[in-house]
Amino acid sequence: MLRQTHEARLAALRQELEKRGLDGFVVPISDEHMSEYVGSYAQRLAWLTGFGGSAGSAIVLAGEYEGLGAAMFVDGRYTVQVRDQVDGKLFEYRSVPDESHAGWLVEHARKGARIGYDAWLHSRGWASDLAAALGKIAGELVPVDSNPIDAVWHDRPEPSPAPAFAQDDSAAGRSSADKRAEVADWLKREGYDAAVISALDSVAWLLNIRGKDVDHTPVALSYVIAHADGTADLFIAPDKVTPDLERHLGNAVRIRPRDGFEAALGEFSGKRVAADPGNAVAAIFQLLEDGGATAVAAPDPTILPKAIKNPAEQQGHRDAQARDGAAVSRFLRWLEVEGPSGDVDELSAAAKLQAFREETGVLQDLSFDTISAAGPHAALPHYKVDEDSNIAIPPSSIYLVDSGGQYRDGTTDITRTVWIGPGEPSAEMRERNTRVLKGHIQLAMQRFPDKTSGGALDALARMHLWQGGVDYGHGTGHGVGAFLSVHEGPQRISKPGGAFAGTETPLRAGMILSNEPGYYKQGHYGIRIENLVLVVPAKIESEGDYLAFETLTFVPLDRKLIDKDLLTPAEIAWVDAYHARTRDLLAPQLGGEDLAWLEANCAPL
């Protein structure tokens, strides 16, 4: 039935393309803001193909073509998942970055093909590169007036109607007026009249507003045009604006209908307007230029200030992490008791963890879909459990849970790997887990010169794994927002020259990142240890300014997976100090068996 559904959808799309005189169409996972996570109304790729990952794209050809005439493009994180969810009799599987849209189209599209794309879902750079590549087959890249998938997706959800709401200045640490003045100063220095702020979390940060329009990310569907005089235009659906929000925004922020944004981009004739090519879609640049403006590709001026958390945001994170840590600890004690029965499955475990977070009374949402991974599923770093993939957690196995919560004072993200009894983990499991732990500790303890890039630190987390002849395929750390996106740029800790932007971004005091080395034995088990860390000034005598990491996440590590003999005295001291701090922070929030479990698991090694 599922195949027939996607086969029918593919056929309907091809008919629509032929009706429009198009020979093909590119389907990304994206929205008008180039968000990582998108609302249900924008899940066009999932509707067409069944793919449920957060990164991927497809190309569908119509008319005459070679082979299947359709291809799915995913990176190494989704090699297994795409084959489980997308029918290989309908779509070829293609791996990025080794294979590209351009290469596939040149090989499979007919000469002179007209390939459509939605300019509201792609970057200008992508469109320029693909248009040039299509020249090899005398082809043309054609922006569509409306998305052809929307024409055949008859039960497509409407965008969320949820109202936007204010994030209090006490939690934000700065007023919107202060932030807008900083942006205005930047505009005047750079010689711009205005800047288009199109990333949803940038809009939220600049105006101190939040929303419920995207699962797991507290943002409202909207755009901002910031002006050099410190005022701003907010483009948002009128039914999202409450009287409280109007009072919060004040007279310096003009509230305009979201569907008026396109026309507003034509109001800048003779002006210089900045837009970030990383999150402003191709249509924004084109509409600015069509209206007579000079559209300048420039970094979003809110990105760096948003990444450098002020003291109020830092303390909010500490408070949120402590609250979240108690909830996760209660879950791990429950799992230790119930897991060995074999009656707990991946979905029920994830639901139980969410219930413990909800019992705090202040959980707003999860910060992402919980990665609840048992046995061989733990070897898939970005595994997403659903009704089809769900399995019971096997007794005598490793279980990995990567999860987080959204609270008004902070965003959490933590991974713990635990042994589910009875019995004991194998020597190999303990050795691999201890090497991951050693890498985690190495990074957590590191001191480094101010403005050192994340790429320069990445090898510290891998060095002990490398010495054992193993590695992991994902980055070591990503930025995290303050009641915003759990994946926030520009900073990250990853191998230099990798596929992720931000590797070379200098780290600054106030930035928050994850510290999450791992190991994955395909088909058997996986290990990851993740805490969040805050970049702080190092308390050492040094020649120049030095930085260090303050650990923010406190939940016990699984002692059964630690081989103490592989740890140095300094590493043992770090684990004991970490557990002592965990006990002090969480004990006042726990009682009874939960407190006894905490005490036992925080005892010195």
Automatic annotation (TrEMBL):
Gene Ontology cellular component? cytoplasm
Peptidase M24 domain segment(s): 317-535
InterPro entries noted in UniProt: Creatin/AminoP/Spt16_N (IPR029149), Creatinase/aminopeptidase-like (IPR036005), Creatinase_N (IPR000587), Pept_M24 (IPR000994), Pept_M24B (IPR033740), Peptidase_M24_C (IPR032416), X-Pro_aminopeptidase_P (IPR050422)
Tree of life domain: Bacteria
**Region called Disordered, residue ranges:** 153-176
Q: Where is the Peptidase M24 C-terminal domain?
A: 546-605
Which key words tag this protein in UniProt? Hydrolase, Metal-binding
Q: Which Gene3D superfamilies match?
A: Creatinase/methionine aminopeptidase superfamily, Creatinase/prolidase N-terminal domain
Q: Name one GO molecular function term.
A: metal ion binding
**Which intervals hold domain Creatinase N-terminal?**
9-146
Instruction: Fetch the PANTHER family from UniProt.
Output: XAA-PRO AMINOPEPTIDASE 1
Say which family it is in.
Answer: Belongs to the peptidase M24B family.
Q: What's the protein called, per UniProt?
A: M24 family metallopeptidase
